[in-house]
Design brief:
The chain is of the alpha/beta class. Helices cover 22% and strands 16% of the residues. It folds into 2 domains: 355 residues, Alkaline Phosphatase, subunit A (3-Layer(aba) Sandwich), CATH 3.40.720; 88 residues, Arylsulfatase, C-terminal domain (2-Layer Sandwich).
Length: 476
């Protein structure tokens, strides 16, 4: 008998039929509060629990000790906007039109007329319909016009900057970096040194206010994206310079949120996720070690990111998952945990519950994972094999660990044996190359490649006009 993908009866049947008495009680009957702490450009090697010896991250390390840490978790893009589109929709960025636009911008810039299409179903809309109070606190970057802000995509509350903190380029006509509440600019330029502190206060306040109901909080931090800032309490304190200061303030912030949950007796009923939108650029103190490549690159360091899931009593403490999972999985996982229906339109992610709850025999649901950069499919992973497609040209600024210059030859690597992605195994494994090429062709046909549209692509929305948001009138 086939069970519906996300029904509570499926969960019930799983509990009754499972031979494993240790299987935690998951459930639709007790859906958890959901908090996603989402850093900007935090690298794979930037946390103590992922091997950093420079950044002090005791609070985040404690989160990992009390939950599950993933070794092979991927963002769907090595840059900001597409990665966030995946988290919100459960789709590859190209499927929802949020990859690079026709003007050549990798990510959205201020006053862009483009934004996430209202016809897409976001994870916030799904949870709001399930009775959750929803908040987005931090950097959005899926469109800065009021029609594209979080409040138009299922969030009851929004407080943060609408795009990256380096986007106040005068010669491009960018306005001063706005700090926005709901759809109104409340400060410009935003004082960046206190952003992490103020985000934390907003999150704690939202939890306190909604402690009697279920809540979903999405906290996309501004840092450690450049330029780096930290508040007085953290500035100049880290052995890793300004980068470390900003990471250690995010660690403090995580501790404050966990303390708040503990104080209100909500820890046992809250799933906390900690992750990053893409890899570090590898300069300025950031690290993707032991991975090769950096932000903007389809080497592992550009797209494989830390991922910690913490839910005491439900997710076993101190566990590690080595199965492939991605940012696209959050939406279907949250649907599963709250007995919500999946969006009607096709998505690409999968429910992580079997991995999180260590169901017997649980494996990654991905037949293949696609590494897109800009508009281009650059690599595909199946199992431990990764096939780098041949490229006409590579971008030298972002690809220090890759061959740069006029182009790149195809290469097959085994990620379990060769994390540096150095040794080409295509000559000894031609059948693997053929198999991965078939997957790549399927992705190009359905999701598209370069200027070629895919058969399953859906558009972003482009407004007819746009304008800079203006400051609210001062409060009398
Ligand atoms: Mg980023």
């Amino acid at each position: 008998m086939l069970l519906p993908y996300t029904s509570r009866w499926a969960t019930f049947a799983l509990l009754i039929l499972s031979p494993c008495s240790m299987l935690p009680v998951v459930a639709a009957d007790t859906p958890p509060n959901l908090i996603v702490i989402f850093c900007d450009d935090l690298g794979y090697g930037d946390l103590g629990c992922y091997g950093s010896t420079k950044n002090r991250t005791p609070q985040i390390d404690r989160l990992a000790e009390g939950g599950m840490r993933f070794s092979d978790f991927y963002s769907s893009s090595p840059v900001c906007t597409p990665s966030r589109a995946s988290l919100m929709t459960g789709c590859y960025p190209r499927r929802v039109g949020m990859h690079e636009d026709a003007t050549g911008h990798w990510v959205l810039i201020p006053r862009s007329r483009r934004g996430l299409h209202p016809a897409e179903t976001t994870v916030a809309e799904i949870l709001k319909a399930q009775g959750y109070a929803t908040a987005c606190v931090g950097k959005w970057h899926l469109g800065d016009q009021p029609e594209h802000l979080p409040t138009a995509h299922g969030f009851d509350f929004y407080y943060g900057i609408p795009y990256s903190n380096d986007m106040q380029v005068a010669k491009r006509g960018d306005p001063p970096l706005p700090l926005v509440q709901q759809t109104t600019v409340i400060e410009a330029p935003a004082t960046q040194s206190t952003l992490t502190q103020r985000y934390t206060e907003q999150v704690v306040s939202f939890i306190e206010k909604h402690q009697k109901q279920r809540f979903f909080i999405y906290l996309p931090h501004t840092f450690p994206h450049l330029p780096l800032f930290a508040s007085d309490k953290f500035r100049g304190k880290s052995a890793n310079g300004r980068y470390g200061d900003s990471v250690e303030e995010i660690d403090w912030s995580t501790g404050e949120i966990m303390n708040c949950l503990e104080r209100l007796g909500l820890t046992e009923n809250t799933l906390v996720i900690f992750t990053s939108d893409n890899g570090s650029n590898g300069r300025n103190g950031g690290s993707n070690r032991p991975l090769a490549g950096a932000k903007g690159s389809t080497m592992e360091g550009g797209m494989r990111v830390p991922f910690i899931a913490h839910w005491p009593g439900r997710i076993a403490a101190g566990t590690r998952c080595t199965e492939l999972a991605t940012m696209m999985d959050l939406l279907p996982t949250f649907c599963s945990l709250t007995a919500a229906r999946l969006p009607e339109k096709p998505i690409d992610g999968f429910d992580l519950s079997p991995l999180l709850f260590q169901s017997p025999g649980a494996k990654s649901a991905y037949q293949a994972f696609y590494y897109y950069r800009r508009r281009q499919l650059q690599a595909v992973r199946v199992g431990d094999w990764k096939y780098h497609l041949p490229l006409q040209a590579t971008h030298p600024r972002w690809t220090s660990a890759e061959p740069t210059g006029p182009g790149r030859a195809a290469k097959l690597v085994n990620l379990r044996q060769d994390l540096a992605e150095k040794n080409d195994a295509s000559q000894t494994h031609p059948q693997v190359v053929s198999r991965l090429k078939r997957h790549a062709q399927e992705a190009m046909a359905t999701l598209g490649n370069d200027a070629n549209e895919g058969s399953q692509q859906r558009p972003a929305r482009t407004l007819k006009t746009s304008s800079p948001m203006t400051l609210a009138a001062p409060v009398p």
